[in-house]
Amino acid sequence: MIRAFVAIDLPGEIRARLVLLQDLLPLPRQVPEENLHLTLAFLGELAEPLAEDVHHALGAIRAAPFALTLRGAGIFGGAEARSVHAGVAPAPALDHLARKVATAAGRAGARPAGRRFIPHVTLARLRPGEADPLRLERAVAAAQGFVAGPFAVTAFVLYRSHLGADRAHHEELARYRLG
Ligand code: 3AM
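A: This is the predicted complex of the input protein with 3AM.
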């Protein structure tokens, strides 16, 4: 089985900016720089023939390149913070692409996670009770001025996620060019 997700990988200079943001926040651990990405769809565990079908469906997507800006920061999980992320400035082209990816993967037979698409780049995942909520909220509020980009999105990627003891390894399976 292949644990798969579709994401936009980020240019090196944008990742470097995100690392600076991580360092400004009180995070018990950080998503490693090489794993920073913007998820379009989480596909879960796919049998290999299904992964192949999904690959072909993703390859048939036609969309133009677009510009993206990362902006601000946020927390998922409310009072019990689960993760901390950088935000994304509104980008209809990104929403369209995420929809096309979910539709293509769904038609191919995958079951993309049905959560509402809230574009973000995860900076850290937290274990229950690990974060000092007030300190974290203050730091995230102070980071609202964070901006990185705009940068050009010219491709998206099908990744295989290998879960490690304390960090995941993301293997690029295929890259699909826009335009
Ligand atoms: O881009 P982020 O970090 O938000 O949290 C996982 C990560 O998202 C998410 O898929 C991305 C690549 O691993 N993910 C993992 N399990 C998930 C699930 N069961 C999930 N998303 C939805 N449902």
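The first helix runs from residue 12 to 24. The helical segments are 12-24, 48-59, 92-108, 133-142.
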